[in-house]
Design a protein that fits this description.
By secondary structure, the chain is mainly β. The chain has strands at about 5-10, 15-20, 25-30, 45, 50-55, 65-70, 75, 85, 95-100, 105-110, 115-120, 125-130, 135-140, 145, 150-155, 160-170, 175-185, 190-195, 200-210, 215-220, 225-230. The strands form six sheets. The chain has a four-stranded antiparallel sheet, with no helix packed on it.
Length: about 230
């Protein structure tokens, strides 16, 4: 159904609907029970002007958040696809959105490494985290490169982790290395960072394992890797 790359996929809480987002600016809602040979979207929304880089379903299953190259965060009603909220303020393209697991706030991270935490009821920005280490401007190629590629909270919701890349000496040649940052959620201070030295790749996603360690999905010119981090160690 998409006319370009599909970048995001989210299932409804009951597993009956799946939403896909694409670089064709569209959100498509699909009925999972449709025939596999010829599925037709039940809802087709021109959601953003430019790539939709990230979508995520809220923990209660009610809302879908989206963000992309038009630098707008949008909140959709999962049941009928209606637009409920638009939040502006990012100065660079939005690369990742993530819901807080319990309090209903939303995090959005952009190309410059800025992470904003939103109160979705009021549209207020209640916190800003500076992940500038995940951004590079290459003056020779005249391009910004990097961004917040993934985020996750610690199980106790006290630490915000963000991943991406640094040492981008040749963005168009995909020369970079993975980097993970850790922020204190309340003070907003950068408290630790981990570099995966020598690996020519990007940290695309980060998750927290129940046994107490972080793992990153890293990929690029070096191939595909899982990188494991013990948060209490350097």
């Amino acid at each position: 159904g998409h006319d370009s790359w599909a970048r995001g996929i989210e299932f409804s809480q009951d597993g009956q609907i799946v939403v896909t987002s694409g670089c064709d600016d569209r959100l498509l809602f699909w009925n999972v029970a449709d025939e596999a040979e010829s599925p037709v979207p039940i809802r087709d929304i021109h959601a953003h002007e430019g790539w939709i880089r990230s979508i995520q379903l809220s923990p209660n299953g009610t809302f879908l958040a989206s963000g992309g190259n038009d630098r707008i965060v949008k909140i959709w009603n999962m049941e009928d696809g209606k637009l409920l909220h638009e939040f502006t303020g990012h100065e660079k393209d939005i690369y990742h959105v993530m819901w807080h697991p319990t309090d209903g706030t939303l995090f959005s991270g952009d190309l410059a490494g800025q992470i904003r935490r939103w109160n979705i009821e009021t549209g207020e920005v209640i916190a800003v985290y500076d992940g500038k280490d995940l951004h590079t401007y290459n003056s020779g190629q005249k391009t910004s490169y990097g961004g917040i590629r993934g985020m996750v909270l610690s199980p106790d919701n006290t630490t915000l982790y963000a991943c991406g890349l640094h040492k981008a000496t040749n963005p168009f040649g995909a020369v970079q290395e993975p980097l993970v940052l850790a922020f204190n959620l309340e003070s907003k201070e950068l408290v630790k960072k981990w570099a995966v030295d020598g690996l020519k790749a990007i940290a695309w996603r980060i998750q927290y394992h129940p046994q107490g360690f972080l793992f990153c999905v890293c990929g690029g010119g070096a191939g595909g890797y899982l990188t494991f981090i013990k948060p209490g160690e350097d």
